[in-house]
């Protein structure tokens, strides 16, 4: 009944936008988010206050309860009354483990504010910084809860004064992270402004401004950004003991006792103030005079003495005194309980209830949906490379609709779905069991008696097989069972404008939807109910069910006004992972979510019984929809591959597949570890760190001569690494040289793949005679990218290289370059989009088969010669490209000038076919082979994916941590001690290939005192040469005849080759019986 009344209140409050607060709880793993959420849920009577913290109500999955960590974000609506005003709080609890940071992104997008929880002992951890950054990127306002203060008393045994200093340091750490984010934003904005000013003035007169880099910071007010208890945006708490307070509460308590105004107390309770007992005044300078600060004297001393009486000394008399002085009533069974924490919780939950402190801070300090900022709206609406100004006018008008956040009939509906989550059909309200009426009970009783009678009759006539048939009962039950087994998807969404109603027709806009295109195609004033022409990435659907999310429960709703978080049923056919829903086709799709973690761990999956393959395919499709970060692909080899963010995430996905989505036995391969292949400059020292001597160089030259004899006919490799290769029909010859790219260039190319893709698209359109509209901002970014490239590619061998770039690869946007060094061949530049004027004046033609050269390069960079992995950081320079007998081939730009005619008349005119197949195909193959030989002519290396690993450990297990790291080829970057604790933070890098089972081993070896957080960071060249054999005497001494010690790169390379079914050179011992000596034979 309480819940029903509560539900009615919540539905009533949904209409009042100013009373809604959409918040999420963010923190590092194990800092107490779900325990805090439990305390807030208990305040609404949904769970018992005694179970708060133990039940972990919002961790509804079985594996979450077993592991003790949250794996998916779940929402609940709470009611909170403060005096006259009532509030509806939509609370989303999010995971803290780095593998599930994508769930944090989906939660943050739907909220207006965040509660950041920090452990009082561990302080700011890597994920704390990550979640603060995510909140910053989404423009949502955070408040701070410093949790687990009981650990300072019980575990660290700090005095109140030491605890005060420790808490100050934690606040400084959190504010330092916020400050860094703020500074970078201000300086970025200032740089943009300066560029605009200089453009306007045309002559740069403001030269002296360059030196004063902090000018913008001084003018900008940032006081509201930081956490400070006197501003009321910090709560000190211990969620497990269910107490928490803000300074405001103690200011209210003491203002009557001390006769000081509560505003004065609020400003002085935190900071360097003390109470002068004689003068009865609050004075500044507690630290310099060696006095107790007010916070210690009035707040911490009381909490410490309570813990001392209840937990440490168990002093019954003192406890009774405290209870009487606070005016609380504690039940006799709590006083008698053997566990002191029960009594402590009973006292604290009445004296300083944590839910009261946190929820009042949320309602006062965090904005309501109607207070959404213009900057945030523009950022949400500017998708991809488009600026807000470049959007169509009708779309820009919707900005006001966002800002108004009204629930009027005329307002267009705008909803954002951040993720899809799966629920069992039993959990849906329409399938929930309701209490039976008297007639239904009678009916069921009669039915049960009838069945019983039938069963008895059947057992008596068992001899007669025909009459034993049970009259079609299985046929009736099977569809219902199937129906129950079916997974239903619910869209996790928020209404930004208008009222969403059940049965309403709406547009579903995919992430690539372009409002400008649809406004041209669709008639004015059309709605989703009208029959409309098809528009790419736009679908129409009906909203079948609307739900209020109540943790593990769902409550059905008829309509949901603006500003609320809700669940929408029946959208699985229209939405894959996230989408925008609107009644206006002018609405743009929202900016894609910012994911912190990149999926890197791949496994191939197959069913235990091959006949169950269709079930696996369906299960993987459902898993892909249900998990924002997991990716599902079918490789060229036909393997079904699952890509996840880390080991814990992988385990959860496999469990989900087995038990929920596919419901079959599956076997997963060992993780498929990605590598990259690259070339380096010839090393100056050998494997025993001695300078390359003459003897070695001679050996290397002999080796090169031997290798030349290995090359097939038509391939020539000279001593400089230039490969010349002729096509089988002797019609064309290409000369290729491979050069390693500087590391910074590779990193730049990798970071700008989106820009490269845009440039490639522009060139493609230009070739077809069309134009692609690119916003000014993107053009500026491309220009900046080009100038950075020019700055990095210096020196005579890279002279004019940026202008000569032919293509990027693999997939036309990768970190490898094809350079045009062919004398006398000028082709359209890849930088066409930023050099349009220059291009118009001088028309440049493409040579025939230009595309074949590019395709060959793309194929070569997609799978290298070492183990068929993509290349990285390699520049292939085309030194020569001759086509013999050009007249025979019809050399009149027939193929490339009109790509549309490539298959028909273009093929006949410009592409001859002989016994070796079409000439363009021969050229592609020749180009690919030439690139591979050029690659092999240089020192080859493998590149491994690397994790950055952050480990927090106490001093006594440091040695073991280092032991585990060195065993797994890890490299420690730095270690630092956290002030005021005995914790060390170790930062290391670790190859992904060595990371499986790393977290478990680390926990076992350190008895659970150290737990690592792994995040994919970068690619790193493995220094050892996989093809190395000893050549000098020292190397023979060190490494034996055939380099007997394990070559790390060779081990990785052979493992990949074996997995792909390629040839691996290894010795297999066949008859390994032990040789017996003659004396034993007697």
From TrEMBL:
Name of this protein: Elongation factor-like 1
Composition skew (Polar residues), residue ranges: 457-467
Gene Ontology biological process terms, A to Z: cytosolic ribosome assembly
Domain of life of the source: Eukaryota
Gene3D superfamilies associated with the record: 3.30.230.10, 3.30.70.240, Elongation Factor G (Translational Gtpase), domain 3, P-loop containing nucleotide triphosphate hydrolases, Translation factors, Yeast translation eEF2 (G' domain)
Region annotation Disordered: where it falls in the sequence: 446-483, 892-911
Organism: Pygocentrus nattereri
Domain Tr-type G: 18-370
UniProt key word Phosphoprotein: no
One annotated GO molecular function: GTP binding
Extent of Basic and acidic residues compositional bias: 446-455
Keywords: GTP-binding, Hydrolase, Nucleotide-binding, Ribosome biogenesis
NCBIfam families (alphabetical): small_GTP
GO cellular component assignments: cytosol; ribonucleoprotein complex
Listed InterPro entries: EFG_II, EFG_III/V, EFG_V-like, EFL1, P-loop_NTPase, Ribosomal_Su5_D2-typ_SF, Ribsml_uS5_D2-typ_fold_subgr, Small_GTP-bd
Organism taxonomic ancestry: Eukaryota, Metazoa, Chordata, Craniata, Vertebrata
């Amino acid at each position: 009944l309480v819940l029903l009344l509560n539900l009615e209140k919540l539905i009533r409050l949904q209409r009042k936008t100013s009373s809604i607060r959409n918040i999420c709880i963010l923190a590092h793993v194990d800092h107490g988010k779900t325990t805090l959420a439990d305390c807030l849920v208990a305040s609404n009577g949904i769970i018992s206050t005694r179970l708060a913290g133990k039940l972990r109500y919002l961790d509804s999955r079985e594996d979450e309860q077993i592991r003790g960590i949250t794996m998916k974000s779940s929402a609940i609506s709470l009611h909170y009354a403060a005096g006259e005003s009532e509030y509806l709080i939509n609370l989303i609890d999010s995971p803290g483990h780095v593998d599930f940071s994508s769930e944090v992104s989906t939660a943050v997008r739907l909220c207006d504010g965040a509660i950041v929880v920090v452990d009082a002992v561990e302080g700011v951890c890597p994920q704390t910084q990550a979640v603060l950054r995510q909140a910053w990127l989404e423009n949502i306002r955070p408040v701070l809860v410093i949790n687990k203060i009981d650990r300072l008393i019980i575990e660290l045994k700090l005095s109140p004064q030491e605890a005060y200093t420790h808490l100050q340091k934690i606040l400084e750490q959190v504010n330092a992270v916020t400050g860094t984010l703020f500074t970078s934003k201000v300086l970025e904005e200032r740089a943009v402004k300066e560029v605009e000013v200089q453009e306007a003035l045309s002559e740069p007169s403001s030269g002296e401004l360059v030196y004063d880099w902090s000018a913008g910071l001084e003018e900008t007010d940032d006081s509201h950004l930081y956490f400070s208890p006197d501003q009321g945006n910090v709560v000190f708490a211990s969620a497990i003991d269910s107490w928490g307070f803000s300074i405001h509460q103690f200011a209210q308590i003491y203002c009557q006792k001390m006769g000081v105004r509560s505003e004065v107390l609020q400003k002085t309770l935190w900071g360097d103030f003390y109470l002068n007992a004689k003068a009865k005044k609050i004075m500044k300078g507690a630290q310099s005079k060696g006095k107790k600060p007010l916070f210690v004297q009035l707040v911490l001393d009381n909490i410490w003495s309570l813990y001392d009486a209840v937990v440490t000394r168990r002093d019954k008399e003192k406890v009774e005194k405290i209870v009487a002085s606070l005016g609380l009533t504690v039940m006799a069974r709590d006083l008698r309980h053997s566990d002191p924490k029960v009594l402590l919780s009973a006292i604290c939950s009445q004296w300083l209830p944590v839910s009261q402190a946190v929820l009042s801070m949320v309602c006062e300090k965090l904005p309501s949906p109607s207070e959404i900022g213009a900057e945030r709206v523009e950022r949400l609406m500017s998708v991809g490379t488009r600026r807000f100004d470049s959007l169509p006018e009708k779309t820009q008008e919707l900005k006001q609709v966002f800002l108004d956040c009204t629930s009027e009939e005329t307002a267009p509906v705008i909803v954002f779905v951040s993720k899809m989550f799966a629920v069992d059909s039993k959990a849906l309200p329409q399938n929930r069991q309701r209490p039976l009426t008297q007639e239904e009970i009678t009916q069921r009783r009669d039915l049960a008696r009838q069945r019983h009678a039938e069963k008895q009759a059947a057992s008596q006539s068992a001899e007669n097989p025909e009459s034993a048939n049970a009259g079609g009962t299985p046929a009736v039950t099977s569809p219902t069972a199937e129906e129950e087994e079916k997974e239903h998807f619910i869209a996790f969404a928020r209404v930004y404008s208008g009222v969403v109603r059940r049965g309403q027709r709406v547009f579903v806009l995919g992430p690539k939807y372009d409002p400008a295109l649809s406004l041209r195609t669709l008639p004015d004033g059309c709605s989703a109910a009208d029959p409309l022409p098809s528009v790419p990435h736009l679908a129409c659907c009906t909203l079948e069910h609307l739900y209020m999310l109540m943790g593990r429960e769902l409550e059905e709703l008829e309509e949901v006004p603006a500003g609320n978080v809700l669940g929408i049923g029946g959208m699985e056919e229209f939405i894959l992972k996230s989408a925008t829903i609107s009644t206006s086709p002018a609405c743009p799709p929202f900016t894609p979510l910012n994911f912190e973690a990149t999926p890197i761990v791949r496994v191939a999956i197959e069913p235990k019984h091959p006949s169950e393959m269709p079930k696996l395919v369906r299960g993987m499709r459902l898993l892909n929809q249900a998990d924002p970060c997991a990716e599902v692909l079918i490789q060229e080899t036909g393997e079904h591959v699952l890509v996840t963010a880390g080991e814990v995430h992988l385990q959860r996905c496999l469990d989900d597949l087995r038990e929920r989505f596919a419901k079959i036995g599956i076997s997963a391969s060992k993780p498929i570890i990605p590598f990259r292949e690259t070339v380096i400059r010839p090393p100056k020292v050998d494997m025993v760190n001695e300078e390359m001597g003459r003897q070695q160089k001679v050996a290397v030259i002999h080796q090169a001569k031997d290798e030349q004899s290995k090359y097939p006919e038509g391939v020539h490799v000279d001593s400089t690494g230039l490969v010349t290769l002729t096509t089988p029909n002797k019609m064309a010859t290409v000369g290729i040289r491979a050069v390693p790219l500087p590391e910074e260039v590779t990193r730049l190319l990798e970071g700008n793949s989106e820009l490269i893709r845009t440039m490639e698209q522009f060139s493609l359109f230009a070739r077809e005679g069309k134009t692609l509209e690119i916003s000014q901002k993107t053009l500026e970014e491309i220009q900046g990218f080009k100038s950075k490239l020019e700055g990095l590619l210096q020196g005579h061998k890279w002279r004019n290289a940026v202008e000569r770039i032919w293509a990027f690869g693999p997939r036309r946007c990768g970190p490898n370059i094809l350079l045009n060094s062919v004398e006398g061949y000028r082709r359209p530049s890849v930088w066409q989009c930023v050099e349009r004027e220059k291009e118009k004046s001088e028309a440049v033609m493409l040579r025939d088969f230009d595309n074949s050269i590019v395709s060959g390069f793309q194929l070569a960079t997609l799978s290298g010669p070492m183990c068929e992995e993509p290349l990285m950081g390699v520049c292939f320079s085309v030194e020569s490209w001759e086509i013999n007998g050009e007249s025979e081939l019809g050399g009149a730009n027939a193929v490339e000038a009109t790509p549309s005619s490539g298959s028909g008349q273009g093929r006949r005119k410009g592409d001859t076919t002989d016994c070796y197949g079409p000439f363009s195909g021969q050229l592609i193959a020749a180009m690919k082979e030439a690139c591979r030989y050029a690659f092999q002519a240089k020192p080859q290396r493998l590149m491994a994916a690397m994790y950055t690993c952050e480990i927090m450990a106490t001093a006594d297990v440091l040695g073991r941590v280092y032991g585990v790291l060195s065993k797994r080829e890890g490299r420690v970057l730095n270690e630092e001690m956290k002030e005021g604790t005995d914790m060390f933070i170790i930062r290391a890098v670790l190859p992904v290939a060595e990371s499986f089972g790393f977290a478990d081993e680390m926990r076992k070896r350190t008895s659970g005192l150290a737990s690592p957080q792994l995040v994919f960071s970068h690619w790193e060249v493995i220094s050892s040469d996989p093809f190395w054999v000893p050549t000098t005497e020292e190397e023979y001494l060190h490494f034996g005849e055939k380099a007997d010690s394990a070559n790390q790169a060779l081990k990785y390379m052979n493992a990949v080759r074996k997995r792909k079914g390629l040839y691996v050179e290894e010795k297999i011992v066949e008859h390994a019986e032990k040789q017996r000596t003659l004396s034993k034979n007697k």
